[in-house]
Design brief:
Two copies of one chain form a homodimer. Chain A is an alpha+beta fold and about 180 residues long. Helices cover about 20% and strands about 45% of the residues of chain A. Chain A has three helices and ten strands. A four-stranded mixed sheet of chain A has the order 7-4-9-8. A three-stranded antiparallel sheet of chain A has the order 1-2-3, with no helix packed on it. A three-stranded antiparallel sheet of chain A has the order 6-5-10.
Chain lengths: ~180, ~180
């Protein structure tokens, strides 16, 4: 197999934002060619599939400003700087749904946009635990609902859930259940 | 259900790149609160699941600079300005694998990063057609291989395929096959 790796030979900071930063690199390809590589840097987040005692999963409806529409997704959130992703997951699921999770299981990591974005999302499954009360950020508005995996798969297949994280997590829930892992 | 939409009341251009642009908006939330919204703008792309006569799908191994690693993914590509996504899909699958597609089926759209990125990926399924020869861009290096859907699902479940687009497409192939659509 060919060597495919690219070496960074120069970098320029473009933007330091609150949610992401941007840099522009010069990269040397295996054949020596120099290419420009623009990169969005994001500190990463988590997605959580919380299943209740009836086999239904908590989902959130929220306005996604960059897409200018309302979406239905598994609960998710951004890591604090240096935070362990399981800590983020436990905090976010309680904040967004009001419930703690138990029996945490790591579904895997996801690269939402590997072509130009460093973001990694760590994906978790948990069972519904105690109710401790919803607590949203000041600039966060969302509605909570519950659906079976079959209902979620149907909505994805019919184009009603375009969120990448939710699609990938639905697959991982199904394959891990088929393999007896959750 | 609560109104969740946010109105743009100000916008500032931050960066005009080749792959994406960045803007910073002021948005008014339903309760009147003003929030900052940083947005990466990307003109969108396609992902293609090309199935051969043995039920195997073409996949590409490539270096993903933003993630600093090699990934295994379904073939994909960026739309040209104003391009119809099916045109992009037909061009990209031939360039990356050397094969034309036939019996094109639209799997749906995906928002890889709806929190802060406007990118939409249109997802397609096609059957392998005539061999017309691989033709890669100057700064593109990749290896082509073929796997069954079961092998792809196993690799996803075992954490070997973190690409969001590939995870979502694997789910859509399975559910559409179960429903007799492809």
């Amino acid at each position: 197999m060919k060597d495919l790796s690219e070496k960074t030979i120069g970098t320029q900071r473009i933007y330091e934002g609150n949610i992401f930063t941007v840099r522009k690199d010069e990269a040397q390809m295996p054949d020596g060619l120099i290419a420009e590589r623009e990169v969005v840097e994001h500190r990463g987040g988590v997605g959580i599939a919380l299943e209740d005692e009836d086999g239904k999963f908590f989902m959130v409806t929220q306005y996604r400003y960059a897409q200018k529409c309302v979406t239905l997704e598994f609960p998710a959130g951004k890591k604090e700087v240096g935070e362990d992703p399981l800590t983020t997951a436990k905090r976010e699921i309680a904040e967004e749904t009001g419930y703690e999770g138990t029996d945490w299981f790591y579904l895997g990591k996801m690269f939402p946009t590997p072509a130009y974005d460093s973001e990694v999302i760590d994906l978790y499954y948990a069972k519904k635990g105690a109710f401790i009360g919803q607590h949203l950020d000041e600039d966060e508005n969302l509605n909570v609902s519950r659906y079976s995996l079959r209902e979620i798969e149907d909505m994805i297949t019919d184009g009603k859930i375009p969120d990448a994280k939710t699609m990938g997590m639905a697959l991982l829930i199904r394959t891990n259940k088929e393999r007896g892992r959750i």
